[in-house]
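=== How it folds ===
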Amino acid sequence: MSDPAPVAALPMYDLPEIAAANDALWRRIAEGLGARGVAAPAALTRGRELAGLWRDPGLIFAQTCGYPLTTALGAAVVIVATPEYAFRGCRGVDRASLLVRAADDPRQDLAAFRGAVAAVNSWDSDSGMNLFRAAVAPLAGGRRFFSGVLVTGGHVASLEAVGDRRADLAAIDCVTFGLLTRVRPALTARVAVIGETPATPGLPYVMSARHGAATRDAVRGALFEALADPTLTDARAALGLRGARPLAESDYGRVLDLERAAVAAGYPQLA
């Protein structure tokens, strides 16, 4: 049986305005893989359903969220490295979510939003749900905190919902917010940041576990070369990338630690 076709994707921070920068980063990584004898696709895959993409046995490079990594993907992927970003809310490889309300909403802290409507991008999001829940749990007192939760399907849609007053509060991944502040300032100007959630390791670069340790070392080496390549200075700046560090799967146990703490506080679901 032939090996599955190699697949690469960078779906998590791939706004149209920065797609060219992601393409440039991938081309350099692919060159490095070729030099190491590892087959790599010439172009990034876009538009695939994420759960299937992350489980593709041909996956050579992608980025995923820490919550599905720890709750659903299991042994399907291994971590290549975790990127470091240059935005508010990012501290090394850790990142928080920013709590945002409408720009003209007078409420100044999270406690003031009891009984409000929350927007969440997805129930399986670390940044939009798990970190949000972790911030609310100490205030909820084991009871429902919000009057309703609007599931929007994405951080951009959550920002739009808050800006339109269809929701009162959302937790937005700080990298997404930083990128949007650059490329869609009219959108982020419609909201105001009132605080930050707890932080967890950011969205890791991963690959299919079937490739093995030697291939992971090759992918990691090609990634680090790309992150140090002076010809990619502009692309890295467009993506807000400072670098990356290799983390172990156990480092992402902090994602589940926050979930367990919320459950122990009597607040198992964002509500």
Summary: The chain has a mean pLDDT of 97. The radius of gyration is 19 Å. Residues 31 and 126 are 32 Å apart (CA to CA).
